[in-house]
């Protein structure tokens, strides 16, 4: 560090400020960077972390990165954290409470800078009160901010869209049990139907790896002469909506002309791919951005808050190939 | 640490061994864990990393986690690393050389335990020789192991499968430019066709965000009376194969009865979802497992090797809805 200061012709304090990410004059910064390059100096992040007693790692705990929604969310989360100078440690919990707790304990041990979690276990007691945390989808405790999409409005929007597009016999499909945010989406959908005198039914597949077979049997039982008994379908998840769509096509049922389908998430399977399924879009990029901002606020503040904010982000309808085009 | 030793009734050295992950007698381990719990002692990973001069972080650099293949790979990679006691730092490079270099430099600075990278930039010179590294898909330098799927055999397998299923007019589709592993897949496919006197053509969409429009125009230009000019289609990527399938369906072309389609990757969009597209499956779990083993070998060895191994993993054909069922 002394060598860098000498070569750069600046004080040791300026070097320290630069390395620790504190504000440095642009001219000083350029001199330091030139010196660092010349000397091939690598500041030791571990030594820095020990000195400041915090690292620049943020832990992201999600059920699995292997779904379009979570992979898109992880992508934007990592890039948002990167903009603040933080690295993202990805943890897949498979919604297993023991694994969630293990990851939280790891975060405590590693003195990470923060935790972002989408956890359905009761982790409030084991989170160190000194680590900033933001919850997604489900609150951890009133102490920590929550960022969530407007799931109720999303269910309403799906029903309204199907009504506008001429559907008369609506159907909600999912896999049992419907809980947490899924039940909020279901409630929004059904409340709109009830209020607007729309016929609405429910079909839930069994909670098994072969649940898709239940969808198939249901479709076959409710199809006569290529005519399916329902004309407007909503699911709380793109996965189920997409399964249902493919199964209807296999029965030669015309989607969207006789049956229309709307899913939930509208996450991008590929970054640039056109959305094939009509769906309620969660604002993935805004969720990531807001979450990182809420985390950074806690990092910057010296005083933990007793009552944290809940941020509800708006959803939108995303037109795909499974609903008719709206006539202007 | 002294308190833990006192409460557990073991030596300070045993505590140190336990914390540093060295072998400890099971009985001693139980005593230490009970004492740690009783005292609510959190070993400071940062202090440990400084002392041993290495952390337990492994950096994974991929173009983007937001594709089925990379999200499935990241999922298995994190769980495999976890089994060895390592945490995974996820880095999305968007195939941007500057970002790849930034992440490598970050890894050098943070003294990470290792790097796993799928990088198309020339990063060999900037990787610290002291950091274990494993390359996926494309070699970094002869010094570092490479783990790759058998892409050539995958292309051959697709052609053979289409031939067996009765296709006569084969078509390779992709997006320009076809390079790296994609061109190896293409070559395997075409070599099989040439050797077996099968007619084979190529259509490449332009390298633009709207490339799907090129697919659509090609399909419309080559369709007469719901009859598409080709009956066996292979793509080096599930993304393009899936786009093509949906576009053929929109033209009311019967897949798989008149046109059959095979993609590449067969990655799971959702962990438990049935595969709808017939495709050549990369052994994602084996890629993750092998990569982590090759990384761990380097970590455990004191001597860097001059010539590292290349591991080529076998691919398989995965039956979906876009090829006819093979008659036994």
UniProtKB/TrEMBL annotation, chains A, B:
InterPro entries reported in the protein's UniProt record: Cro/C1-type_HTH, HTH_LacI, LacI/GalR-like_sensor, Lambda_DNA-bd_dom_sf, Peripla_BP_I
Q: What is this protein called?
A: Transcriptional regulator repressor of sugar transport operon
Q: Give one GO molecular function term.
A: DNA-binding transcription factor activity
Q: Which domain of life is it from?
A: Bacteria
Keywords, alphabetical = DNA-binding, Repressor, Sugar transport, Transcription, Transcription regulation, Transport
What is the organism of origin for this protein?
Leuconostoc citreum (strain KM20)
Under Pfam families, the record lists:
LacI, Peripla_BP_3
User: What residue stretches are annotated with the HTH cro/C1-type domain?
Assistant: 3-42
- SMART domains linked to this entry: HTH_LACI
Every HTH lacI-type domain range: 1-52
